[in-house]
């Protein structure tokens, strides 16, 4: 059987790059100065700093990259540093609009003012709710009120007395009844009874009737004057009340006005409050009837017991009392309400009511004057949140609109608060695909997010970078309160980082994955009662993580060993080869071999991809198969029609195939079927191919090699097994120790190939062959036998065509 010699195999030292712990300038990370930043992300960091410093509008930033690269931490840290150099932004509050209550007014207040104004207004109402009732109960007020009541009441009584006297002089009595006043004639000082009236002669009765009718009109005039006097009395009392209330209100308000002097908006609002309190002093009298604790008893200080005093409240939307820098806000649930704020309602007497005190701020309010960090996917997944964010950024103001109002499903009257001016820098964090989709599909996005911070996946693994990487790991361990990490454990983590990067010359910048390994290793260190995390703890963490996630991989390997999935690891077969693929389940990937078979016959130049025909092959796989057709037609029997009918299939594949990493294996199977030369089944192949026959690098090379190694190891390594990989993938090798040990012992080989000719020679043990001066391949070579087969197909096709024409001529004759 053919077998690659040692010169063809990848040197053992190149199968996995080792980091020598002795070469590291420390014994544990406790000796290192920790590094809290990110390494290898200078380009992205510069973009984030620019977003934090530039003052022009629309320079919001989209931070793109993969999960676990520290994007959120980096954005938070850099923007917090920029925020420290910016002034503390203004505060915002909503107050009552005394002219149009459904349109609350916003107040822009200097830092540290809003809560103080709110407390002063609560204290003012509390004080007035005690002082105004006390003033109205004072002897001075009661004397003045009684004087007014006596004055206007006396005028009415005097008018009635004078009328009664005039009526009496005319022998008519004014009598008060339960239903009002009436007039009656009198004789000898006594009211004339009906029978006495009837006994009078007619002339006398007419005189009495005329007299009573005239006096009745005079009485009516006197009575009509009573409401006017009452109104005058009431007005006088109101003036007295206003004057009385003004004294205490003005005295209290003067202190607040002095405290907030120089803030024009506050001064204008306080003037309106003063006028309304004086005009509505009765509110404070009503409050006093509920007890003498005032409207803000110690247990309840926010108007809950006395909603009538909401009109004087200050609803603080943004307070900066607890901060000394510009805000950096992260909103983890960016719904419409959480972004732009909301207006709450309460049920009272079976109806939903609201007022300006129920306006609640959103993330844009809290971040106003600073920075807002959002997860792009979450914003886009929340109904109307993305549209609302763009609207606020474009208009430069925060307008609160509920979802029901925007959908038109709520027709009740609601509030229309003044929009608050917006000055914020937004940082969206998301995947690269999401960024490019937004750039392509959303014109507003390009206008509003002019900056991008693109995070690198890996960095060069120079000696200086490795030491810096160790400082990053040490800093992570210190921040996470983990034990110090030994140099050999750092070396193991760095090697794992290279494996994550799929490149022995690079270090992965997916710090989250390494952090998970380190935390788990620290747990095993604690269980062993050690004080320093060692390499064995890192190895245990990696091994146990692999075991937890490997159930499906083990079941597939079991199916191979039991013969349910047909894979040969020895012998040789024509038109059959072991291809390698990577299976991804969530964030776990593993390699798995698949049998690829090819069948050929005379045809019209069709290369049938069975996976594509049954719609189980993706576009990249179909492209790879079409490249095979291009290679065959451009390499063999150039002077004859391409007369091949071939089929390719991944045997026992039920989940679909995509990618072109198996295209070289498919080409090898085709060449084997055409040349009728068997391929060694102890070898597996990965790599894509171009139309020139060059083998190109692919991804997942480590997992693919390890997947076939596990199959061979379970059946017993013979020393004649191995994997052919593209030569360009050698730098990507970071294989597990079991594979490296087997290769060092000569039991398993990894062979780099650069061309299809080199690969077919290794797989078949037959020279590929090159065209000689006569333009022909050697007869016994693989290429010679392939071309001869294709020429045979073409000749047979030509002969078949002549026979068909002759039969047609005889039939017509």
UniProtKB/TrEMBL annotation:
Write out the GO biological process terms.
Answer: protein catabolic process; proteolysis
The annotated region (Disordered) lies at: 1-20
| Key words of the record | Coiled coil, Hydrolase, Protease, Serine protease
Please give one Pfam family short name.
AAA_32
Instruction: Specify the enzyme's EC class, one word.
Output: hydrolase
**Any idea which residues are catalytic in this one?**
661, 704
Q: Which organism is it from?
A: Palleronia pontilimi
Q: Which family does it belong to?
A: Belongs to the peptidase S16 family.
What's a single GO MF annotation on this record?
ATP-dependent peptidase activity
| Enzyme Commission no | 3.4.21.53
Q: Which chemical reaction does it catalyze?
A: Hydrolysis of proteins in presence of ATP
- The Lon proteolytic domain is annotated at 571-766
InterPro entries per the record? AAA_32, Lon-like_helical, Lon_proteolytic, Lon_Prtase, LonB_AAA-LID, P-loop_NTPase, Ribosomal_Su5_D2-typ_SF, Ribsml_uS5_D2-typ_fold_subgr
Q: Which protein is depicted?
A: endopeptidase La
Gene3D superfamilies referenced in this protein's UniProt entry, alphabetically: 1.10.8.60, 3.30.230.10, P-loop containing nucleotide triphosphate hydrolases
Q: Which residues form a coiled coil?
A: 198-232
């Amino acid at each position: 059987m053919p077998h690659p010699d040692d010169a063809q195999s990848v040197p053992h030292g190149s199968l996995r790059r080792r980091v020598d712990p002795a070469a590291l300038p420390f014994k544990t990370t406790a000796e290192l100065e920790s590094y809290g930043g990110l390494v290898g992300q200078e380009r992205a960091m510069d973009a984030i700093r620019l977003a934090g410093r530039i003052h022009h509008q629309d320079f919001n930033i989209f931070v793109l990259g993969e999960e676990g690269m520290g994007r959120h931490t980096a954005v938070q840290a850099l923007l917090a540093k920029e925020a420290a150099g910016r002034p503390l932004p203004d505060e915002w509050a909503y107050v009552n609009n005394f002219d149009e209550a459904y349109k609350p007014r916003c107040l822009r207040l200097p830092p540290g003012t809003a809560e103080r104004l709110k407390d002063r207004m609560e204290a003012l109402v509390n004080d007035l709710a005690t002082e105004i009732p006390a003033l109205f109960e004072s002897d001075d007020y009661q004397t003045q009120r009684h004087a007014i009541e006596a004055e206007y009441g006396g005028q009415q009584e005097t008018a009635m007395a004078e009328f009664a006297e005039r009526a009496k002089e005319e022998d008519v009595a004014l009598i008060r009844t339960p239903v009002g006043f009436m007039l009656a004639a009198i004789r000898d000082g006594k009211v004339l009874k009906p029978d006495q009236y009837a006994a009078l002669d007619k002339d006398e009765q007419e005189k009495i009737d005329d007299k009573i009718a005239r006096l009745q009109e005079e009485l009516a005039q006197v009575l009509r004057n009573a409401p006017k006097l009452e109104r005058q009395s009431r007005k006088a009392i109101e003036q007295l009340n206003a004057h009385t209330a003004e004294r205490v209100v003005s005295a209290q308000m003067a202190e607040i006005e002095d405290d907030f002097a120089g803030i024009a908006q506050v001064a204008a609002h306080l003037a309106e409050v003063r006028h309304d309190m004086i005009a509505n002093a009765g509110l404070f009298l009503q409050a006093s009837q509920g007890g003498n604790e005032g409207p803000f008893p110690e247990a309840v200080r926010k108007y809950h017991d006395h909603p009538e005093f909401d009109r004087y409240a200050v609803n603080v939307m943004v307070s900066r009392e607890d901060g000394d820098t510009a805000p950096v806000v992260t909103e983890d649930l960016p719904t419409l309400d959480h972004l732009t704020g909301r207006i709450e309602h309460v049920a009272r007497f079976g109806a939903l009511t609201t007022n300006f005190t129920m306006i609640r701020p959103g993330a844009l309010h809290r971040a106003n004057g600073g920075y807002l960090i959002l997860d792009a996917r979450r914003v886009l997944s929340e109904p109307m949140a993305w549209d609302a964010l763009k609207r606020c950024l474009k208009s430069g103001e925060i307008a609160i609109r509920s979802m029901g109002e925007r959908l038109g499903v709520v027709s009740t009257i609601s509030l229309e608060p003044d929009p608050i001016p917006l000055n914020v820098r937004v940082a969206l964090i998301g995947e690269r695909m999401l960024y490019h989709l937004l750039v392509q599909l959303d014109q507003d996005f390009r206008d509003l997010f002019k900056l991008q911070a693109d995070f690198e996946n890996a960095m060069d693994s120079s000696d200086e970078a490795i030491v810096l990487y160790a400082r990053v790991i040490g800093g992570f361990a210190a921040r996470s309160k983990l034990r110090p990490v030994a140099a050999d454990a750092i070396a193991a983590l760095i090697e794992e980082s290279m494996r994550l990067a799929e490149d022995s010359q690079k270090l992965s910048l997916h710090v989250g994955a390494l952090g998970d390994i380190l935390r788990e290793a620290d747990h095993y260190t604690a269980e062993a009662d050690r004080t320093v995390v060692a390499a064995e703890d890192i190895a245990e963490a990696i091994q146990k993580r692999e075991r937890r996630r490997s159930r499906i991989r083990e079941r597939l390997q079991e199916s191979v060993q039991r013969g349910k999935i047909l894979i040969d690891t020895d012998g040789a077969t024509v038109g059959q080869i072991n291809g390698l693929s990577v299976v991804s389940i969530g964030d776990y990937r593993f390699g798995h071999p698949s049998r690829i078979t090819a069948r050929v016959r005379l045809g019209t130049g069709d290369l049938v991809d069975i996976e594509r025909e049954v719609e189980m092959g993706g576009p990249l796989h179909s492209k790879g198969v079409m490249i095979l057709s291009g290679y065959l037609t451009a390499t063999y029997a150039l002077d004859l029609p391409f007369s091949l009918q071939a089929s390719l299939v991944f045997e026992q594949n039920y989940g679909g195939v995509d990618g072109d990493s198996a295209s070289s294996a498919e080409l090898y199977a085709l060449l084997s079927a055409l040349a009728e030369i068997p391929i060694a089944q102890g070898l597996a192949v990965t790599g894509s191919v171009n139309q020139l026959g060059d083998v190109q690098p692919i991804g997942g090379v480590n997992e693919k090699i390890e997947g076939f190694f596990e199959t061979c190891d379970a059946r017993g390594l013979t020393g004649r097994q191995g994997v052919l990989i593209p030569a360009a993938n050698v730098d990507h090798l970071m294989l597990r120790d079991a594979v490296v040990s087997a290769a060092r012992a000569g039991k398993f080989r990894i062979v780099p190939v650069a061309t299809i000719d080199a690969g077919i020679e290794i797989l078949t043990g037959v020279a590929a062959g090159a065209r000689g001066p006569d333009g022909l391949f050697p007869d016994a070579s693989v290429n010679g036998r392939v071309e001869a087969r294709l020429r045979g197909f073409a000749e047979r096709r030509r002969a078949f065509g002549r026979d068909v024409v002759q039969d047609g001529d005889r039939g017509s004759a």
